[in-house]
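User: Teach me something about this protein's shape.
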Amino acid sequence: MPAESANNATFYHYKLLKKIVLPKPLIRSFLTLPFIWLAAEMVFISWTSIFFFLLAIPIVLWIHFVISRSVLIIASHSYRKRWSFTRRLPWIGYLPDQFVSYSIFRRVHLHAAWIGCCIIAILIPWSPVSFTISLILWHFWFLTPRFYILAGLRKQPKTGMIKFNEQDTSYYMP
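Assistant: First, the predicted structure itself:
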């Protein structure tokens, strides 16, 4: 029995099924994308794009927060202690800081993706081109690491639990 528990990582009654690590070269290239986007906007649209580019960051984070919080209020009863705003790269935004159900995590971020796109599409007629492009780019930039995790877990059972650690994301099964 002790040899079996040493081979299979468990947390209380959860069994570790998969660990997903974001490779460091992927994170580095991911972190350079905003600078490339900003340079492209300044060259192809206008030098004033920098102001819209910086303004889009808090707006997209706020949109993600409102959507995520709304989905959590509708779908889950005990989210307050499990979700918080995170500033560590590449996980900037509203994320779980404890174990969270995979289905809730998936539902929250899929809703944030499509509702965020709808909100940005609604703003297109009244927003400058540079601001709209910045909103779209930041929207997908913030969601890309989460979708990397969802893609890595797509063949796993939907009843598991996710835990975000400093170096990886762990997927546990009860």
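Now, about its shape. Residues 1-6 have pLDDT under 50 and may be disordered. The first helix runs from residue 2 to 7. If you'd like, I can walk through any region in more detail.
User: That's plenty for now, thanks!
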